[in-house]
Amino acid sequence: MKKRIDIYRNTNQYVNDAIDRIIVGIHLKKQKGGYKMIMFSGCEPGVGTTTISISLAISMANTGWKTILIDGDLRKMAKYKRLNLGAETGLSEFLSNKCSYDEIIYDTNHDNLSYISSGRGASNPVSLLCSARMEELIEKLNEGYDYIVIDMPSVTTSIDANVLANKVDGIILVSAYAKTDKTSIRESKDILTSSGGNIMGIILNKMEASTYGNILKNFDYYKNQRYVSKRTRSKAKYS
Ligand SMILES: Nc1ncnc2c1ncn2[C@@H]1O[C@H](COP(=O)(O)OP(=O)(O)O)[C@@H](O)[C@H]1O
Ligand SMILES: [Mg+2]
Predict the structure, then answer these.
(1) N or C: which end of the chain has fewer CB within 10 A?
(2) Ligand 2 center from residue 219 Cα (angstroms)
């Protein structure tokens, strides 16, 4: 029997608040434009693209949408991957015709969330991502899921995200607050749009909690003890 992959949700309230806001943005865009297959790529490596893809896929699935998360990084060695353990057969094997579609779909510990790992990796990622087999996979995934989240390497480290740019419905670019400069955000955006990609938005990740709190002043209104006690006091006054 196929193993189940455990994927853990981030418990940080700042991260989860930000994720909720992104989910709302995606849902609104989905209603308007029918977005289904969304690719995540970073302006540079290490900005948190994989972390965000995982969190968003979990949130989409928890909302009740049938979701699949795909690790599209065929270059990073399996031993450095977070979720490859127990899911050795994945994208690279399917694209090289070594296994069937059913063999690469893994269940997870979340209802409505399936997972495709990158597999054992490939020496020719570009030709695999360009292949007819990739088109076949996209067609099958579109039939089977409400949301397809593809986690790709950053735009600056390889051309792989570019290859899929016009095959997906939308792209979310990830950058790191106070680390990724404006030029590199603009360049990444230009690279993907010139390949026919549709940028849905840009995420500023790795923001200090205090900065996040300053920008979105009441984001923790329902959880912050300071506000809870204030609400309880004023309720007592009027009852
Ligand atoms: N918002 C965040 N705050 C702090 N650390 C983060 C955040 N997002 C990601 N990280 C950390 O940054 C590192 C790189 O993240 P990862 O998702 O692998 O980036 P990428 O896929 O863009 O290379 C990981 O150690 C991850 O835990
Ligand atoms: Mg990554």
Answers:
(1) N
(2) 28
Distance CA 128, CA 92 (A): 8
Terminal Cα-to-Cα distance of the chain (whole angstroms): 59
Task: Give the whole-angstrom CA distance, residue 212 versus residue 37.
Answer: 29
- b/e code 133-159 from CB counts within 10 Å (16+ = b): ebeebbeebeeebebbbbbbbbbebbe
In sequence order, the 6+-apart residues with CB closer than 8 A to the CB of 95 are: 122, 128, 129, 131, 133, 134, 137
Q: Is 81 in the pocket of ligand 1 (CB under 6 A)?
A: no
Residues 6-22, mean pLDDT to the nearest whole number: 82
CB of residue 46 inside a 6 A radius of ligand 1: yes
pLDDT tens profile 81-118: 777 667 889 999 999 999 999 999 999 999 999 999 99
Question: Going by CATH, does the domain composed of 8-207 fall within 3.40.50.300?
Answer: yes
CA of 158 to the centre of ligand 1 (A): 18
